[in-house]
Amino acid sequence: MLLLILAAAALVRALNLGYPTLFMDEYGHVYAAQSILKTGKPELPSGYQYTRALPYTLLVAASFKLFGVSEASARVPSVIFGVLMVLGAFLLGAYFHNAYAGLLAAFLTAFLPLTVGWSRECRMYSMFAFLYALLVLCFYKGFEPEGKADVPKHSLKSVDFRWLIGAGVLLTLAYSVQMLAGLFLFGVAAYCAMMFVFLWAKQGFKAAAASKYSTVLILGLASFAVLASTPMLGKFWRLSQECPPYARWKARMYSFYLPVLFDSKFHWLALLGAGILSARGRKGIYFLAVFITPLLFHSFVLAWKSERYILYLYTLFLVFISAGVVWAFKWLAPRIKLLVSRLGGTTKQQSAAVWLVGSLLAVVFFANYRTLHYGATAFRQYHGITVPHNDWRGVAQYLKSRAAESDAIAASVPLAILYYLGRKPEYSIRRHEALTAVSEGGKKPGGVHDRYTGSLILEDERMLLDAIAKHPRGWVVVDKPRWNKWFLTLGQMKLIKTRMRYHPNASDGTVLVYSWGQ
């Protein structure tokens, strides 16, 4: 069954992989990977060193070397890790509850839009989610190993350091892919704090103070004290508060992630599953700690909020749902048997009734789980299912037939024009980058150039007028999500609409194309 789920997950993720155009964040890995193959350095066309999630970019470079440069080959590493995410969900569900919960968690991970969508993007989130799942499992197997009956569970001697060394390697790798991996340590600290309190209540303070939980808490506090004595703590705090101007409206939305997690009425079964797991003792408490603690940080501490940032926690959340479903069916099964037996049914008839009712409930469950259908048909979606994939490919084809080599181009995603049209735009429509650069380093006489292509950012209406005066002919290309006050001033928007020609057939409507001097 697991092999069938994995095969289906691979098919859903790989089918028609190059169909959607690249979205904004994919270009960084694409160009850095190409640069690695050419120069050995992960540089963007502007010369900016793009080192974020470098292990993932190296895998993209390897994919390019094997399959050539394309949208599909750029996304191959994410597809692979997306399938491994399904395996990770099974391992977590099977270990922390049972094999049935593992299979259901794997099935949900295979087809839900959030997991499918980010497994079809050239971005590191599926890789990080898989590494986090392994980290959660590996650390617990080392910290709370089974099979040492002669040693007290709370003793430091019960620890299996082989698994913990593996967890350390996974944590290091996961952190190099996404800094959010550091939140796992807070989850471990929360677990140890709860176990310390429970042990204190059950066996007294002396036993709690001598436990491995106390050791971890002391090491954690000492590490925090050392960190607090250096500039690093302030740096981490500033990083946690970083947020682009256009996303600041979400910074104080503390319930932002609840609709992401509970986007289906069936997901409320996660609350039942969380209760079931927590009743199982150490395993459940630990699993809750490494899920809830990072989620609280995302909700109340980290300013920049986006559904992709909790993809690594989503797999754990699906385990809660699966545990709730499995427990509910186990609760229902004996009652069905009892009912059939009272009606005079035989043992075989009782079992048949359980299977029949279970099958009917499964059909109703999956038939009404509409988001599953959306994830399973992701390969049909030209505009993607997680973030908007706008029609830059269509725009490039339009410009190739109409724009002259001497025409100036101003674009909201300069790398899209470079990738699909093959030329760097003279200007960038990314006003918020200029505002940030000016606030950090002061006004620059020559203007601010964007970090991706090095194109000059048109900061205001005057700069746009200067560009029009300098170039007899030109184009302004802005995707709809970026037609707002953070990328353009109101004056620039009015100028574009009143003094330029709109080209409605240049794209499928997701990218706005205007021209002057035509």
Can you summarize this structure?
This protein has 518 residues and is mainly alpha-helical. 62% of the residues lie in helices and 4% in strands.
Output the radius of gyration: 27 Å
- Helix percent reads 55-70%
Query: Largest sheet, described in full?
Result: 6 strands, mixed
Shape: globular
- Taken in chain order, the helices and strands follow as HHHHHHHHHHHHHHHHHHHEHEHEHEHEE
Structural class: mainly alpha
Q: Provide mean pLDDT, rounded.
A: 90
Number of structurally distinct domains: 2
Distance between the termini: 61 Å
Tally the helices.
23
Contiguous runs where pLDDT drops below 50 for at least 5 residues: 438-442
- Strand-residue fraction? under 5%
The spatial strand order of the largest sheet comes to 3-2-1-4-6-5
The total beta strand count reads 6
Description:
By secondary structure, the chain is mainly alpha-helical. It folds into two domains: 2-378, no CATH class; 392-516. The protein has helices spanning 2-14, 26-39, 54-67, 71-96, 99-111, 113-118, 125-143, 161-177, 183-203, 205-209, 212-228, 232-241, 257-261, 269-278, 282-300, 311-342, 347-368, 370-376, 392-402, 414-421, 431-441, 461-470, 490-499, and strands spanning 408-411, 427-428, 456-457, 474-479, 501-502, 511-516. A six-stranded mixed β-sheet has the order 3-2-1-4-6-5, sandwiched between helices. The longest helix is centred in the middle third of the chain and has 32 residues, at 311-342. It is globular, with a radius of gyration of 27 Å. Residues 438-442 have low confidence and may be disordered.
